Amino acid sequence: MERFDHNLTNVYNFKIKAWSSIQYYRDEVLPKLLEEKIIRISPFANRLSFDAPPAVQRLRCLANYEALRFSSTILSLGETLVARMKKLSANTGGKYVSVHLRFEEVCII
């Protein structure tokens, strides 16, 4: 990211049509990724999550898990929210309601 002045907007933005094939990712996206070392994909479609072979699915899940890191500010906020939920739910027998505002069908496992 140093070469992009730590600014994501300076990173090459790869626009991908929805429902692009795995072959498109391999033939078009991968070479650009290898050239640039980092790319943005937008709008990001979860195309690979639907019909990829199990080995690709495992790699995709592992890459997502390893790549997603929260900043210390977000971690701190999350810890505060969890502590608050635990404290306040003690008055309701440990019950609370949680709402995910960006629910997507692909989140269902």
Molecular structure report:
- With 109 residues, this protein is mainly alpha-helical.
- The chain has one domain (2-107).
- The chain is built from four helices and two strands; from the N terminus they run E-H-E-H-H-H.
- It has a two-stranded parallel ribbon.
- Strand 1, helix 1 and strand 2 (40-42) form a beta-alpha-beta unit.
- The longest helix is centred in the last third of the chain and has 18 residues, at 72-89.
- It is elongated.
- The two termini are 33 Å apart.
- The model has no long low-confidence stretch (mean pLDDT 79).
Overview features:
109 residues, mainly alpha, two-stranded parallel ribbon, 4 helices, 2 strands, 47% helix, fucose metabolism, O-fucosyltransferase family protein
Q: What is the gyration radius calculated from CA atoms?
A: 19 Å
Task: State the oligomer.
Answer: single chain
Helix content: 40-55%
**Overall structural domain count:** 1
Shape annotation: elongated
Order of helices and strands: EHEHHH
Mean pLDDT: 79
Number of helices: 4
Fraction in beta strands = 5-15%
Q: Largest sheet, if any? A: 2 strands, parallel
Spans where pLDDT lies below 50 across 5 or more residues:
none
Strand order of the largest sheet: 1-2
